[in-house]
Amino acid sequence: MRLFVQTMGSRGANLLLTRASRIKSKLQMVFEAKVLEVEDVSYQHAGHAAVKDNASETHFNVKVVSDKFDGQNLVKRHRMVYDALADELESGLHALSIVAKTPKEAGID
Hints:
Elements: H1 2-7, H2 11-14, H3 19-31, E1 35-40, E2 59-65, H4 74-84, H5 86-90, E3 95-101, H6 103-106
Parallel strand pairs: 2-3
Antiparallel strand pairs: 1-2
Main location: plastid
Subcellular location: Plastid, Chloroplast
Family: Belongs to the BolA/IbaG family.
């Protein structure tokens, strides 16, 4: 699936995959993550005013453990994740809860 997303980069082709799958693929590609967890928690926000037309796949918890966070403060790490998912945020992703750690901070160094 990853090859399909990369070679067929149109927005239409990306919609064939779930948002969770796209998020995982993008974060893995950008961060070469040692640990990557993506949890769809949209069901917890159903009916909220910001969720239009009962949209699904709008709220996610992500945990990324990567060497690329080494030397970066928390704000910069979050900005890096937001930048990696910019197109998702523009197309319906409403909220992210982010845990971004180095392998050493996660105890897997």
